[in-house]
Amino acid sequence: MPRALTAKQSWRQYVAISPYFILFLVFGLAPIIFSIYISFHEWDGIGAMKFVGLAQYRYLFTDPDFWHSILTTLIIWVLNTVPMLVLALILAFALHSTVRYKGFYRIAYFVPNITSMVAMAIVFGSLFASQAGLLNSALEWMHASGVPWLTNPWAIKISVAVMITWRWVGYNAIIYLAGLQAIPGDVYEAAKVDGASTIQTFLRVTVPMLRPVILFTVITSTIGGLQTFTEPQVLLGDTGGPDNAGQTIVLYLYNHAFVNNQFGYGAAVAWALFLLILVFSVINWRLLSGGGDPTASRRRVGRRLRRG
Amino acid sequence: LSEQPRTIAAGTGGVASPRLSRRRLLQAAALAGLSVGAAACSTDTNSAKDLSLWLWKNSCSPEMLAPLANGIPGAGGATLTPNVIGGDFGSKLLITLAGRTHVPDLTFLNSDVATYFPNADQFVDLYSLGAKDLQKDFLPFKWNFGVNPAGRMVGFPMDTGPTATFFRNDLLAKAGLPHEPDTVAKETGSWADFIAFGSEISKAVKGGFVTPTLSALFIQVMAQSPKQYVDAQGHPIYTEAHVQNAWDICIKAFEAGLSANAQQSTDQTAVLANGKQVAQVNAVWWVVAGPEQLAPNTKGNWRICPAPAGPGNYGGSFVAISKYCKNPEAAWKFITFLENKENEVTNLAEMFLFPSRYDALADKAIAKPYEFFGGQPILEVFSEAAKGVPLTYYSPYDSLVSTPIQDELTNVEATGKNPAAAWKDAMAAAKRELSRIGVS
Fold it and tell me: Which residues on chain A are in Cβ contact (under 8 Å) with B261?
C-alpha cells in the first residue's frame, strides 16, 4: 500500500497538471465571476462602473423584447432539434448499414459542421432571398408563389432552423453511429430469430439501446439551441430581422452588450440564460434518463419484443 | 508511488545525461514558459519613436502610409506602424481601451465617433495640439462632428459622405420622364416632390422603385436634419417634428409603393442590377459600393443630381490620438500630414474617400468626368453638397432611438404592420431604451 504524498513532496505533479487549471482560472472562472459582478453595474466598457444593484435584472424581466427573444429561441429550438435528431438517427442507421463508400458518406455529412459560417451565410442568404433567391426562383418556375423567407416572422424562424439543422445533422449522426456500433450483435440476432422486421428492430432494439446516446444529443442540442446566435446574426443582422423574428436570447445579449455597449445588461442577460439552460437540462434529464443500467434496458427490450 | 519520479529519471538516464531527468526538464520548461511570457509583455515598451496606428481595410491609401515607416515628415525621426484591424473594429478598439494596455497611439474612428464622447478623456484633446488653427480649412459640419459637447476635440476630420440623388438616365428617358441632372433636380426639389416624381416613375417603369427599403430612406432624410435624437445637453428631442416628419415621408413613400422592400443584400443587388432600382438618395461612397461594384452592367446609365430638400451626410471617418500615446506631437504631425490637401486628393483618387478640406474640394480632381455616369463630373455635385451639409449634433445615444424606428419601418413594409401602431411602438421602445441611461 503506497503512502500518500504530502503536498511538499508532490509539488511537481501539481505543477504538471497546473496549466489547465491556471488557464481555466484566467480564461474561464475569472470572466464568469466578473460577469456576475458587472451584472450589478452599469458599464459602457471604458468609463467608470456605476453600481445599480438589481436594476439590470429588473429591467430585463420587464423588457418585452427579452421575453419575445426567449419565445423565439424556444420556437427555433423546437423547429430545428426535432427534425434534426430524427433525421440524424435515420442517417446514422443508414450509414451503419452502408457497405460501400462508408468514409465518403461520413465525411460528406460532417462537412457542413466545419464549414465557415460566413460562407454559409452567403449561400443561405442567396437561397432564401425574397426576390432574387434560388428557392423562390424555383418556386416561381413551378408557378407557385414565392415565400418571403427572410421577412415573414414564421418563415424567418424556419429559415434559421433549416440552417441549424443542415449544420448539425451530420455531427449528431456521427455520434449516433458511434452508439450504434456499441450495440452488441447478439441483440439483433435475437430479434431476427424472433422474426422482427427492420422497422421493428429499429424502434424496439436500436432506439431503446441508444437511449443514453439520445439523451446526450438532446441535452447538447438543447444547450446549443438555447445559445443560437451565429445563424440568425449572419442571416438577418443584429436585430434579428423584421419583427425581431430571429432575435434569439444570445443575439439579444450581443445586441445590447456589443452594439449598444451596455455590458452590465449583457451580463445580466447571460445569467438569465444560464438559469434557463439549467432548468431545461434538468427537465431533459428527468424525461429521458431513468433505467440507466444497460441490463435494465435490455430486459425492457426483451419485454417489448415479446409483446410485439 | 513516491519512488516513481526517480525510476523515470533512471530510465531516461541511459539515453540523455543522467542529470537531465524529467523533473529537470519540467522545471526548465516552466522557466522557459515564464521567460517567454515576460518577453511577450515587454514587447509593448516601444520607444516614443515608433507610433502604432489602427485602421480598417480601405480607410486609407496603403501607398501613402508605407513611406512613414521610415519617418513621419517633420516629426523628428518618429515612425509609423499601421495595423489593419479586421473584423469588428469598434468592438476591438473598445476592448483594448477597456484593457488599458496595448492601446494604439493613433486610431481611425468611424462615423460612430460620438460613442466615445462620454469617455473623451481616453483621447488627446486635439485642440491642445493646435487643431484650432486648421479649423477654417475644413468643412464645418465635419469638424463639429468630432468635437464633444464639453468642447474637447476627439476626432480629426478624414473623409466625408455627402449625399445626392442617383438615378437611371436611360430608364427615365425611355419612360418619357425628365432624365437629365438639372431637370430631375428641378422635379425633386422637396421630399414631397421626390415622392410625386417617384409615383410617376413607378407608373412608367414597370416595377420601378426609388428606395431599396423604408429604413434606407429614413436614414437619408435624417442625414439632412440639423437636429437628431438627443441634444448636446442630453435632452431627448426625438419626439419633435423633425423625426415625425422623416417618418411621415417614409410612410408616404410606402403608400405610393416606392420601396423595393429589399431587406437582404442579395435582393438589393438584384434590384440594382435588374433595373428596378430607378433612383435612390445615397452618399458619395455608394458610387463605388453601389452601382459600380454591384451592377457593372448598368455602366453609363446612371446620373447624379442634388438630393431633395438639400444635402446631408452619411458616413465618413476620423483620426484620433489615444491618451496612451507617448509622443502626441509626432502623432499630430502625422494627422496634419494625412489630412493635407495632396493626401486628401490622393485618397480620393486611389481609395474614393471624399475630402473634408475646402481646398481639396476645389481641386481639379473633382471636375473629372465619370464614364460610369455617362461622363458626368459627378464629384462636383457631391462637392457642392458637402459645402451645404447643415451643422448637427450626433449624440452617443442616437442609435438607441434610430434603431427601433428603422426596425418598425421594416415591420411596416415587410410584415404589413399598421403604420400608426408601428410609430407608437417605436416611440415606446426608444423611450424605454433611453430611460435606462437616464435620458428623459
Answer: 130, 151
